[in-house]
Amino acid sequence: SLKDLQLTPEVKAMKAAWIKKQAKVFAGKHTKPDSEDPETVNHFNWYMATGFTLPYPGEAKIRPASDFKNRRAPKADLDD
């Protein structure tokens, strides 16, 4: 897209890494709601929405996808 042409090489690389991370996080989980790590998903959504130009709220810099390990989502609270 035109927006992508305006990104610096560093931002393009970070975006590509996050898109790769997204594919890994969601792989095979289409039938398992909320099975992804919420911290990873929240950061990905924030960075995509802000064009990889703003740090996640409360953080000083944009974090690379490699900062996020493939953790599982917390177990559901079934006693409600």
Question: How would you describe this structure to a colleague?
Answer:
The protein has 80 residues and is mainly α. It is 42% helix and 0% strand.
Write the layout of secondary structure elements.
Layout lengths: L1 H4 L3 H18 L11 H12 L31
Roughly how many Å is the radius of gyration?
14 Å
**What structural class do you assign from the helix and strand content?**
mainly alpha
Tally of DSSP helical segments: 3
Shape designation: globular
Order of helices and strands: HHH
Low-confidence stretches: none
Fraction of residues in β-strands: under 5%
Largest sheet: none
The end-to-end distance, rounded to whole angstroms, is: 46 Å
Oligomeric description of these chains: single chain
Number of strands: 0
| Residues in helix, % | 40-55%
What is the residue-mean pLDDT, rounded to a whole number?
A: 81
Short structural summary:
The chain is mainly alpha-helical and 80 residues long.
Entry keywords:
80 residues; mainly alpha; single chain
